[in-house]
Design a protein that fits this description.
Elements (H helix, E strand, L loop, with lengths): L13 H8 L6 H22 L12 E6 L4 E6 L6 H7 L7 H8 L5 H4 L17 E9 L8 E5 L5 E5 L6 E8 L9 H12 L6 E3 L2 E2 L16 H11 L8 E7 L5 E7 L12 E6 L2 E4 L14 E5 L16 H24 L1 H21 L1 H7 L4 E3 L8 E2 L2 E5 H7 L1 H4 L2 E5 L6 H9 L4 E3 L5 H11 L4 E4 L17 E3 L4 E2 H13 L5 E5 L12 E4 L2 H13 L11 E5 L3 H8 L2 H4 L8 H19 L6 H20 L1
Parallel strand pairs: 1-7, 11-13, 17-18, 17-19, 22-24
Antiparallel strand pairs: 1-2, 2-6, 3-4, 3-6, 4-5, 7-8, 9-10, 10-13, 11-12, 14-16, 15-16, 20-21, 23-24
Helix pairs in contact: 2-6, 8-9, 8-10, 9-10, 15-19, 19-20
Length: 634
Amino acid sequence: MLEQGTISIHTENIFPIIKKALYSERDIFLRELISNGVDATSKLKMVSYAGETTTEVPEPEISITVDKEKKTITVTDNGIGMTVDEVKKYINQVAFSSAEEFIQKYTNTSNDSQQQIIGHFGLGFYSAFMVAAQVEIDTLSYKQGAEAVHWFCDGSTAFTLTGSDRTTVGTTITLKMQDDAEEFLENGELRRIIRNYCDFIPVPIKLNDEVVNRQKALWNQAPSSLTKEDYLEFYRYLYPFQEDPLFWIHLNTDYPFIIKGILYFPKLKADIDPNKGQIKLFCNQVFISDNCEEVIPKFLLPLRGVIDSSDIPLNVSRSFLQGDRKVRKIQDYIAKKVGDHLSNLYADQREEFLKCWQDISLFMKFGAMNSDKFYSQVKEIMVYATSFMDSENKSEYGNYTTLQKYVERNKEQHENQVFYTSDPVAQGTYVDLHKAQGLEVITLDSFIDSHYIHFLEREFSDVKFSRVDSELSDRLINQDAKAELVDPKTNKTKSDQLQEIFRAALHNPKLVIRTEALKYEDPASAPPAMILLPESARRMQEMAALMQQTNAPFPEDHILLVNTSHPLMENLLNLDHSVILSATGQPSESKELANLICNHVYDLALIAQKGFDANGMKAFLDRSNKLLLHLAKA
């Protein structure tokens, strides 16, 4: 059997839903009522422009008064007002959006006024019932001959509609506050709400006769009319007690979507959370949210400032965004504007760009890894601090190079290998060793660089990245010294002897010990030993630690590289090594001293790579004290 009909929607439970679930924060009610009032003043201007009224249109104004004794808040506008039929249509029919119908009717009227229509949902008025036990509307339409109307509702689905003695065009909404909402009767709380949500609405908002909103939205002004101090003052107002921003971008487009705003590039702290947005979202100068994750590309979340758009789809609470095609286009637009600005800064103000690099590099690298479009814009301006110095890349803020120039410059010396340091201070010994032999080292020391290096190796598939402490280039080692004989009787080289001495002293069969003569102009200034951490093993360990959100342990499979050209090694060999290597009998003074020296050399190499824990530090101090005692006896 076929039956056709219409589904009925019952509204008996609409008010409990409104009170509990319509908005995430109860203070939204004032934003919604003020927004409706501003809409009403904009509509009055529009009908005046259309010639539908001959009466003089007053300057728009929203007035809020509080009566603590009566526990009431009134919100009054001098806008378009409503007739009795409009009250029945727009108030009694929940979720009917009067703003949408109004925009359609006056679609060819003044565009500037049209864009000031804020409402989209028709439920904004009903947010009053989140805090009010009773709500009254007193209104008079601009239309000639219209009669004033009074509407009353106690939070049930019942209402009364009567005439009113009101004589001025506009609307007054009176809220009788619930007992659990009396905090909204305090001027300070209302002032906070107005500043938070309605500070930049271009209509004066009076609280008990005092104008409390700024009204001027800087992002709506032409950039040519603004000074540097204007931008800085606005930033300080939005983010008090913060350092001034590095620079900013003024957004302003009306095709293919409407978006305005100012994005500031702040100085980033070491503990910055790149996933936490601080950009404020507005719709027609009404504050919506501090959360712009769906509108701003993820890699730009560390930026600050304001985005204002009437083209961003909002859900009923106006607190969250719905991802759609238009939003993705807005994201692309914002990312492109940022990329263009950075490229222009690099081309026209190189010193300023390099001055800011430490702060902007984080989100540029993050953006490069997450957006092919953004990477294509900025790949030629991604720079890295370098040990190489020439007139082209020298700056008062340091020496920088692009990866392309690094590879081209060093192709003959070390083909497509890139040497880098993740900590120029802790790895300073390794960096100096490379520099001394003319090997260029770049710095990759941000917390995302372990990911970024993988990204670069995918983009530059023929380039290999090696941290300065992962493996030593042949150019850093004196190959001729390997064959140097020490004991003709045993036919052992210096390297062979030192291998045996260190292995016997350290008692660690898992430790890989290498003996190499490092190239140093002054052998005494070179380290007696170094720790090498194989690149692939170290990266795997770091990645595992990152996934488990723990600190990466010091790799067990590290390499102790003993520098055979250091004078200390010659002294070590000059000890009675026939006794040192004896496997029987009581250890001699020479053997114990040799063991202490070997352990001390290993300790120093470890200290250059990592700190000791409490037990490790105690053992180090004990060994050091014993070594000093032996040296004192000698």
